[in-house]
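Q&A log
Question type: sequence-to-structure
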Amino acid sequence: MRLLYTASDGTLKWTKDIIRSEEIPPYAILSHTWGEQEVVFDDLKDIRTAQSKEGYRKIRFCAQQAKLDAINSMFRWYRDAERCYALLSDVENDSLEVLAPHSVEFFSKDGARLGDKESLKHTIHEVTGIPIEALLGSDLSKFDVAKRFSYAANRQTTEEEDGAYCLFGIFSVHLPLIYGEGKENALERLRTAAILKKKGYSHDQKERLDKICS
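Response status: OK
Response body:
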């Protein structure tokens, strides 16, 4: 068994041959109707051959949807972890992941333990601006929308839009990923959705949010 995955450069690549069931990672599967120009295993040995077939768009759709689900679920994965180990490239790390897990332990790049979220709460607050109450587990919906946006003001991401997408979990919203829209447009979509969620939806606001999310 082999699975396709999206590499860091955006291309689709094969995993190694998976033989044992315990080696199978979480994966998504596509249900579709077989057409005349479907991509088969040999086609994917040469990506240009695969891309020339109509069926390739189905594969790209599945990969993009899986990435969307992963980003929308990332905050929940951190939140549900028993413990998070944060290996820092430097002490002044602005990672949003400190918010989600109940237990976070910080280590230097050399593996030296620096402390945990409780013992370092004042330092984390000073570096990130995240309120201590939020770090210690208070409901994030109680905090001002603008303040929550500021938590990621200095966050560095490979794709500029990810600077907005990484905030989805903090606002408990699910929005489509539109790479190429630019960070400001992504932030504006998120800001509108977050404000509507904070205020509670009227019928008109619900319709407006549905348009944003479509």
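Response note: The mean pLDDT is 80.
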